[in-house]
């Protein structure tokens, strides 16, 4: 995130501090290698991904030009207020955090009033900037200031943050003064009833607090309560929030002992909950929850390597088409993983390529793109392709991919020795990444490449030489292997059994085949798809056309009037010109 | 019908070697399990019953392998899976893993003979994961599990002679594994035959015998006829080879030009909509 640093204005020490800690914190997270390796890694990736979009907020405060870069419509009250808050010099961090949290409430209210999930999503996105500052006290303060002391919702939330005795300072009075204009707004809203969305939003913040402080047991219990609560509330405007609640519920379960690969892990026991959530979400066409829960279930099954179940889940559900980009990326990754295990490499390759492309490019999502790229590399190798050298040079991937680079080098040249060495040397890494079994399958590819190299360099070579080159056990083995390679279309050659040699056929001209045409066609198709997608992705503000229509109508009316006046002879030419320009 | 019945049936089951008798015993045991609500493990099932149930299914699985009934075996394996996934604390102490590895190994081998490689690898992936979790070392090192894994690797890379040797030498981990040897032999023979069809222009009968692991030249002739190969002057010719090639050429030519036209028309249409 170095690009961000210059944006933060030096006069505001609070903001600077926040940005700094965020950076460090994420790096701390990423390499933490837990058992069940890959699971953990991916999670980090995912975790980060959900967090990715908004860090720009920090910089937004001081530098307005880089507005929303994700296509959302104009910003409104809440964000501006945010800016004002930052403007106040030397704000107490606690007060600021409280204000930040509260600034999301109008957004949530707006979401309910306009029935537009985009506002809830924006509130959720601001979580990442609040995240590092969360403490039970801040949460308690927000709760006490928001709810009247009699509210049962407030009581249970306070219970959750261990601040049962916090005093209720309602109505908006003391603390509020500090954040200037927002006071009146929030205050007025509070006078009305407090919508349940706010309760759930605070619940999510509490979940995050638990998660960041590794209080998993309590977090899981509290998440269970939240899920119950969402069920009993049964409001469509809660949908995008409930998706997040399920997400954290499953994260808690994953981190509780015994850890996932063990069959008695808590992840197994939340499957029914998730499945019923999925059912409800599908019935209600709740896309956010649906996509999140499908991804969670896949992840859940894969963590205990119940691949058959995961495959069945995929075949029985339909992933919502307009799910959020991050969920799609995750879904594609899991799909690719399952297909790779099932030896359906072409499909796996397709899904994984899409996953790596859809992965957010921000550095905090590096975990995800690393994991996805690793798997993609292995699948490419399994398909007999050699991955692009440039992939290994990317700064964010270079170190993580080092073991894979060795592997690719061995496969490319077809040297069994080096291949085996790379495996034994890095077997721990591969196991942790969950690619070990896939890599073991590569052995035959190494042999095939070796044979192909020989077939290209020699027009005729004896089986004995092949055997020595590939370090095979016997000449018979070599003969069978070469025969198989010929049948599988790896090489164009024929065998002579009596004399014991392999004779390569002349390689034809590639341009005489259909291959260049196909490659060309593929590219054109990709371009066309890109065009179609960008057309589909365009957004138009609601009712804008009516405004234009109205303008046009007014203009026409004026014109008519003018025409009339001209007819009447009241208007001279100059006047007319001026009028037209004004329009 | 109670737990005691179950144990007595189990005792008898272990001592008899008669297939008919065993299968009646097994079905009685399964009915008893059903009455005890232990056909699938429940949280309330007592440990001793769990163990007994597992043993019933295990003996059933081994029995169906000996009887060469793959469907029944697959069924038993599926019934056993939930039992194997329970944590070992739920069983009486010291009962160990039972025949888990043996049965899983047999199942892998079955998948291999059915050429269900996707199923094989799916199963294997799960094994690797659990093995690395339990810290019980590499799966390949296991006597029962290592065998099918080795065979699969050889089959995939094409070292058919090693597969053959492994089976011919009879060094199978247990007698049940030899049931599959025959099926595997047929499998690899067919594989080799299809490889030879494309790899060799022609083959002398005498060396084909070794190539296909057949006992006599008569068997070679028989096999060649069953695959529709032509035998001339003591050599085998593969008629499909040349046939395939010529058809390919012709079909290709037409298809390529047609495809190019179709594609170009498609581009034109798309351009029209864009501009």
Automatic annotation (TrEMBL), chain A:
Family: Belongs to the proteasome subunit S3 family.
Coiled coil: none
Composition skew (Acidic residues), residue ranges: 71-85, 568-583
Keyword Transmembrane helix among record annotations: no
Residue ranges of the region described as Disordered: 1-88, 553-583
Comp. bias regions, Polar residues: 1-11
Gene Ontology molecular functions: enzyme regulator activity
Official protein name in the record: 26S proteasome regulatory subunit rpn3
A Pfam family: Rpn3_C
Key words, A-Z: Proteasome
Keyword rRNA-binding: no
GO cellular component, one term: proteasome regulatory particle, lid subcomplex
Domain PCI, residue spans: 329-509
Gene Ontology biological process: regulation of protein catabolic process; ubiquitin-dependent protein catabolic process
Lineage: Eukaryota, Fungi, Dikarya, Ascomycota, Pezizomycotina
Ranges annotated as biased composition (Basic and acidic residues): 553-567
From TrEMBL, chain B:
Top-level lineage group: Eukaryota
Pfam family, one: CSN8_PSD8_EIF3K
Domain PCI: from-to ranges: 71-254
One GO biological process term: proteasome-mediated ubiquitin-dependent protein catabolic process
Keywords: Proteasome
Gene Ontology CC annotations of this record: cytosol; nucleus; proteasome regulatory particle, lid subcomplex
InterPro entries assigned: 26S_Psome_Rpn12 (IPR006746), CSN8_PSD8_EIF3K (IPR033464), PCI_dom (IPR000717)
Coiled coil: none
Gene3D superfamilies: 1.25.40.990
Assigned protein family: Belongs to the proteasome subunit S14 family.
PANTHER family, per the entry: 26S PROTEASOME NON-ATPASE REGULATORY SUBUNIT 8
Name under which the protein is recorded: 26S proteasome regulatory subunit RPN12
Lineage: Eukaryota, Fungi, Dikarya, Ascomycota, Pezizomycotina
């Amino acid at each position: 995130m170095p690009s961000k640093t210059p944006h933060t204005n030096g006069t505001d020490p609070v903001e600077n501090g926040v940005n700094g800690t965020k950076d460090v914190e994420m790096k701390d997270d990423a390499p933490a290698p837990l058992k069940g390796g890959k699971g953990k890694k991916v999670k980090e990736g995912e975790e980060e991904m959900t967090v990715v979009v908004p860090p720009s907020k920090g910089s937004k405060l001081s530098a307005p030009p880089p507005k929303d870069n994700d296509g959302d419509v104009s910003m409104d009250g809440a964000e501006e207020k945010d800016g004002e808050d930052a403007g106040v010099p030397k704000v107490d961090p606690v007060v600021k955090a409280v204000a930040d949290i509260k600034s999301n409430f109008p957004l949530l209210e707006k979401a309910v009033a306009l029935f537009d999930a985009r506002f809830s999503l924006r509130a959720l996105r601001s979580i990442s900037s609040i995240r590092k500052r969360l403490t039970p006290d801040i949460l308690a303060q927000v709760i006490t200031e928001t709810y009247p002391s009699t509210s049962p919702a407030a009581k249970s939330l306070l219970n959750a943050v261990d601040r049962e005795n916090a005093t209720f300072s309602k109505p908006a009075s003391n603390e509020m003064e500090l954040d200037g204009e927002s006071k009146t707004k929030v205050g007025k809203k509070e006078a009305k009833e407090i919508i349940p969305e706010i309760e759930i939003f605070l619940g999510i913040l509490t979940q995050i607090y638990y998660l960041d402080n590794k209080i998993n047991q309590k977090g899981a219990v509290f998440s269970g309560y939240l899920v119950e609560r969402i069920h009993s509330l049964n409001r469509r405007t809660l949908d995008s929030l409930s998706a997040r609640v399920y997400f954290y519920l499953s994260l808690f379960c994953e981190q509780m002992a015994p850890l996932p690969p063990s069959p008695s892990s808590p992840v197994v026991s939340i499957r029914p909950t998730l499945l019923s959530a999925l059912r409800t979400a599908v019935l209600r066409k709740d896309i956010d929850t649906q996509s999140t829960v499908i991804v969670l279930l896949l992840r859940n099954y894969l963590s205990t390597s119940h691949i058959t179940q995961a495959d069945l889940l995929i075949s029985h559900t339909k992933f919502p088409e307009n799910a959020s980009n991050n969920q799609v990326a995750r879904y594609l990754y899991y799909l690719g993983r399952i297909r790779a295990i099932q030896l359906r490499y072409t499909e796996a390759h397709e899904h994984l390529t899409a996953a790596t492309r859809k992965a957010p490019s921000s550095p905090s999502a590096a975990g995800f793109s690393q994991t996805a790229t690793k798997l993609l590399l292995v699948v490419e190798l399994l398909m007999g392709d050699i991955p692009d050298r440039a992939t290994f040079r990317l700064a964010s991937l270079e170190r993580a991919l080092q073991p894979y680079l060795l592997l690719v080098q061995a496969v490319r040249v077809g040297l069994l020795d080096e291949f085996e060495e790379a495996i034994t040397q890095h077997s721990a890494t591969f196991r942790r990444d969950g690619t070990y079994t896939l890599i073991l399958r590569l052995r035959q590819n190494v042999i095939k490449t070796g044979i192909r190299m020989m077939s290209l360099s020699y027009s005729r070579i004896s089986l004995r030489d092949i055997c020595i080159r590939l370090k095979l056990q016997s000449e018979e083995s070599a003969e069978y292997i070469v025969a198989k390679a010929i049948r599988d279309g790896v090489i164009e050659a024929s065998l002579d059994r009596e004399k014991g040699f392999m004779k390569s056929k002349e390689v034809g001209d590639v341009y005489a085949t259909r291959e260049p045409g196909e490659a060309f066609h593929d590219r054109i198709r990709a371009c066309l798809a890109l065009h179609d997608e960008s057309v589909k992705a365009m957004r138009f503000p609601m009712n804008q056309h009516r405004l234009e229509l109205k303008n046009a109508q007014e203009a026409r009316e004026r014109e008519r009037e003018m025409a009339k006046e001209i007819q009447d002879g009241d208007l001279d030419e100059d006047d007319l010109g001026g009028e037209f320009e004004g329009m | 019908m109670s737990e005691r019945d179950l144990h007595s049936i189990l005792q008898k089951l272990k001592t008899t070697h008669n297939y008919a008798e065993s299968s009646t015993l097994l079905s009685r045991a399964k009915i008893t399990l059903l009455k005890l609500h232990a056909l699938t493990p429940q949280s309330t099932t007592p440990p001793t019953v769990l163990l007994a149930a597992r043993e019933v299914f295990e003996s059933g699985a081994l029995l169906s392998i000996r009887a060469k009934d793959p469907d029944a075996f697959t069924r038993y394996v599926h019934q056993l899976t939930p039992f194997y996934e329970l944590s070992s604390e739920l069983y009486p102490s010291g009962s160990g893993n039972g025949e888990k590895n043996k049965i899983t190994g047999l199942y892998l081998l079955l998948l291999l003979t059915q050429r269900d490689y996707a199923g094989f690898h799916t199963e294997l992936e799960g094994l690797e994961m659990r093995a690395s979790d339990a810290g019980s070392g590499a799966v390949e090192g296991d006597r029962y599990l290592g065998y099918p894994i080795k065979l699969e690797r050889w089959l995939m890379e094409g070292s058919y002679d090693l597969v053959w040797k492994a089976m011919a030498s009879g060094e199978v981990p247990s007698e049940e594994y030899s049931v599959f040897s025959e099926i595997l032999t047929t499998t690899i023979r067919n594989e080799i035959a299809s490889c030879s069809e494309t790899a060799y222009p022609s083959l002398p009968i005498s060396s084909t015998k070794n190539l296909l692991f057949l006992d006599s030249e008569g068997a070679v002739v028989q096999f060649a006829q069953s695959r529709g190969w032509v035998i001339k002057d003591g050599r085998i010719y593969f008629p499909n080879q040349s046939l395939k090639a010529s058809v390919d050429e012709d079909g290709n030519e037409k298809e390529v030009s047609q495809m190019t036209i179709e594609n170009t028309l498609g581009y034109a249409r798309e351009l029209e909509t864009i501009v």
